[in-house]
Amino acid sequence: MSIYNSVRETLVPIHKEGYPFIAIGVVASLLLGWLWEPLGWIGALITLWICYFFRDPVRVTPQDEGLVISPADGRVSSIVEVVPPPELALGTEPMLRISVFMNVFDVHVNRAPVAGQVRRIAYTPGLFLNADLDKASEDNERSAMVIETPRGPVGVVQIAGLIARRIVGFVQEGDALTTGQRYGLIRFGSRVDVFLPISVTPLVGLNQRAVAGETVLADLRAGGPRRTFVSA
């Protein structure tokens, strides 16, 4: 194996959504370095951080039917029973909501939590409050998606945060998703909410670290006693 291939396989891939930002960073660093060398080094460090932010590592996703996998890297910030947002069109009865908060150092490529067909996608403009706040579910810019599964619909909502200014989607209504498939990306700090049937028992705890495409949040096949949860 050549040195080039060894290095290529060692480095974490960068998602193509990051290429324009990296190109801007490189050009800006060269211009700043031409004006004053220390500024060029600062620009280079920022460009390296942009590469880090848009990293898209390979994940090994459990494919057992019924498992709900985390759609995002980050901290499980809340597990609570709430009425789903109206844009999901999932009715007015409470559902189990598991929220994963991503800071600016987490991987921001989002993955489908379950396999199924995309029944609905709805974009809602809004504010850019701290995504860790509970009211961000109602006030912030967000993109909601409903995935139809053999065990009923599952809602997923990408919520823009204090720094985030763009939610990017990779799928359309009618598309078939596999569990762990990349379906979107949020730029620079945000949150993803997963809405599940009220009977489902979560398999994660508050403040637990979740890994997109790998961490099991719940099992749609297994119910359990009703429990009360609160936000972290």
Describe the structure.
The protein is an alpha+beta fold and 232 residues long. The chain contains four helices and 14 strands. The strands form three sheets. The chain has an eight-stranded antiparallel beta sheet with strand order 9-5-6-7-11-3-2-13, with no helix packed on it. Strands 1-14-12 form a three-stranded antiparallel beta sheet, with no helix packed on it. It has a three-stranded antiparallel beta sheet with strand order 4-10-8, with no helix packed on it. The record marks 189-190 as: Cleavage (non-hydrolytic). One of its GO terms (molecular function) is phosphatidylserine decarboxylase activity.
